[in-house]
Specification:
4 helices; mainly alpha; single chain; elongated; about 80 residues
Length: about 80
């Protein structure tokens, strides 16, 4: 059933999705390079790589943890300022 649904999708749509997937990788690298220049984000940068090396999480789990940290960190920063 799934293969019949996938074969019904036109070739230009699947090719466009492949190209868009490549852009997502480039945008991710650009975000990491941009973040490396911001000093107050460096602990998150290194903790993320450390956690990625030692924990067996999926990318979805890391994204969820990142959202939770952001939801805690952003209001805490505005309360301090």
């Amino acid at each position: 059933m799934v293969s019949s649904m996938l074969s019904a999708i036109p070739e230009f749509v699947t090719r466009g999705l492949q190209i868009a997937g490549g852009f997502i990788v480039v945008v991710g690298y650009a975000m990491v390079l941009r973040m490396m220049g911001v000093k107050y984000l460096m602990p998150f940068f290194f903790l993320g790589f450390l956690a990625g090396g030692y924990l067996d999480f999926s990318l979805l789990a890391f994204g969820g943890v990142g959202v939770i940290i952001a939801l805690i960190y952003i209001p805490a920063q505005s309360a301090v300022a």
